[in-house]
Amino acid sequence: MDAPSPQPPAAVVRHGPLVRITHWLNAVFLAGMIGSGLQIYTAYAHFGYHGETFNVPNPIDGSRMAVPHAIKLGGWLAGGLRWHFTLAWPFVLTGLAYVLFLLFSGEWRALLFRPSDVPGAWQMTRYYLRLRKDHPPQGKHNPLQKSAYTFAIVLAVLSILSGFAIAKPVQLGFLTDLFGGYEWARYWHMVAVWTFTAFIIAHVVMVFVADPGSFRAIITGRYRGKFVERPRA
Question: Which is it for the CA torsion 138, 141, 142, 146, positive or negative?
Answer without folding.
Answer: negative
